[in-house]
């Protein structure tokens, strides 16, 4: 096996595939990166228990300057191999596998010899047999992921909540995540999926890694779903993720249908105020801020008090305030995550009672995106 390739372009592909490679695995060969060289190009593969990533470098792609001299395959320890490639001195590198899987990597005056493993022992990637494909705009998919993964649970005690619940029915895609303290729900209309029906739970960690890999070059992402795997295809990359097993909780019943108090904020201005208030809440033992709404005086005030440090009080700017007076306390980190997901838009925050969950929605489009946060009891 022997090839020459542009080092900088190769590093980009290598970095993507490494997202699937873990140093903590019960299968030693999975700490390695599989390279398979054919006349048509080079395939890089990485895998762990949850995700597998395969990316293809075509021989005809001028950016990579790939020269295939002798086809073959090898598995190399990913961490060491990656560090070597990044430190090589020249723009191009040559990799050659000789007897007993000895692998020589050369670039300019530098030459490394490392031992590889037989690629025949590398586990096969999952086979996706379904031919049904969903097409998603890459920017929409990235947006759905960023707006929902913030609410997935990091606690393994309830594994089902570490995923995003994805359903497709009657031409509508709905993504929901909750960690039981907060919830995020996003809907989009998919006219080309009118005949499709899916109900799956994708690990939040898988979606986070996928989102980092989707760049401006990918206009569309093809999605294929089977019983226990989901496959995303874009550019020359294939991303596999296992699905979580079990029934996701019925989250619709958690979302209030009406409200007693509602206020409209600019999301980014409200975020700045929460960030200031959380400076003291983080310094203290109780990470809590309090929001007080007085509809009679038309005032909105945010407070944070840390007995060890001090306190902060700020009058908030808002567009509209209606309903009953209310005082409510919450975790500012949850609020900051929620507000960031709205970008520059104006949002409506709706409340029912001091200890009842409250919701945040875009003021202009209240049906397609909602964030819910559970208050904190302070007495």
From TrEMBL:
Keywords: Cytoplasm, DNA replication, DNA-binding, DNA-directed DNA polymerase, Nucleotidyltransferase, Transferase. It comes from the Bacteria. Residues 253-376 form the DNA polymerase III beta sliding clamp C-terminal domain. One of its GO terms (biological process) is DNA strand elongation involved in DNA replication. Pfam families: DNA_pol3_beta, DNA_pol3_beta_2, DNA_pol3_beta_3. One of its GO terms (molecular function) is 3'-5' exonuclease activity. It is found in: Cytoplasm. Residues 1-126 form the DNA polymerase III beta sliding clamp N-terminal domain. One of its GO terms (cellular component) is cytoplasm. Residues 136-250 form the DNA polymerase III beta sliding clamp central domain. Its main location: cytoplasm. InterPro entries: DNA_clamp_sf, DNA_polIII_beta, DNA_polIII_beta_C, DNA_polIII_beta_cen, DNA_polIII_beta_N. Coiled coil: none annotated. Belongs to the beta sliding clamp family. NCBIfam families: dnan (TIGR00663). PANTHER family: BETA SLIDING CLAMP (PTHR30478:SF0), DNA POLYMERASE III SUBUNIT BETA (PTHR30478). Forms a ring-shaped head-to-tail homodimer around DNA. Confers DNA tethering and processivity to DNA polymerases and other proteins. Acts as a clamp, forming a ring around DNA (a reaction catalyzed by the clamp-loading complex) which diffuses in an ATP-independent manner freely and bidirectionally along dsDNA. Initially characterized for its ability to contact the catalytic subunit of DNA polymerase III (Pol III), a complex, multichain enzyme responsible for most of the replicative synthesis in bacteria; Pol III exhibits 3'-5' exonuclease proofreading activity. This is Beta sliding clamp. It comes from Liquorilactobacillus cacaonum DSM 21116.
């Amino acid at each position: 096996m022997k090839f020459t390739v542009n080092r900088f372009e190769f590093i980009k592909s290598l970095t993507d595939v490494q997202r699937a490679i873990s140093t903590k695995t019960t299968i030693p060969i999975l700490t390695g990166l599989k390279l398979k060289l054919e006349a048509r190009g080079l395939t890089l593969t990485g895998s762990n228990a949850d995700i597998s990533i395969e990316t293809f470098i075509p021989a005809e792609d001028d950016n990579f300057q790939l020269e295939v001299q002798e086809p073959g395959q090898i598995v190399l320890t990913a961490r060491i191999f990656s560090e070597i490639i990044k430190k090589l001195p020249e723009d191009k590198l040559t990799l050659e596998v000789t007897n007993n899987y000895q692998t020589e990597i050369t670039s300019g005056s530098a030459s490394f010899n490392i031992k590889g493993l037989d690629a025949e022992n590398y586990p096969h990637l999952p086979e996706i047999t379904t031919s049904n494909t969903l097409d998603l705009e890459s920017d929409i998919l990235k947006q759905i992921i960023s707006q929902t993964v913030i609410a997935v649970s990091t606690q393994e005690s309830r594994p089902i909540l570490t995923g995003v619940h994805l359903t497709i029915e009657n031409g509508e895609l709905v993504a929901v995540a909750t960690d039981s303290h907060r919830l995020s729900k996003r809907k989009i209309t998919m006219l080309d999926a009118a005949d499709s029906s899916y109900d799956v739970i994708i690990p939040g960690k898988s979606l986070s890694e996928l989102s980092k890999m989707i760049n401006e070059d990918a206009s569309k992402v093809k999605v294929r779903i089977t019983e226990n795997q989901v496959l995303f295809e874009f550019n020359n990359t294939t991303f596999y993720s296992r699905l979580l097993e079990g029934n996701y909780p019925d989250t619709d019943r958690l979302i209030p249908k009406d409200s007693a108090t509602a206020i409209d904020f600019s999301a980014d201005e409200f975020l700045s105020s929460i960030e200031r208030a959380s400076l003291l809440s983080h310094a203290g033992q109780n990470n809590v801020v309090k929001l007080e709404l007085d509809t009679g005086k038309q005032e909105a005030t945010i407070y944070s008090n840390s007995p060890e440090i001090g306190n902060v009080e700020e009058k908030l700017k808002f567009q509209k305030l209606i309903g009953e007076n209310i005082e409510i306390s919450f975790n500012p980190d949850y609020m900051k995550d929620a507000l960031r997901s709205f970008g520059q838009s104006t949002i409506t925050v709706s409340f029912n009672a001091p200890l009842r969950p409250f919701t945040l929605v875009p003021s202009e489009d209240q049906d397609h995106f909602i964030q819910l946060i559970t208050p904190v009891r302070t007495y």
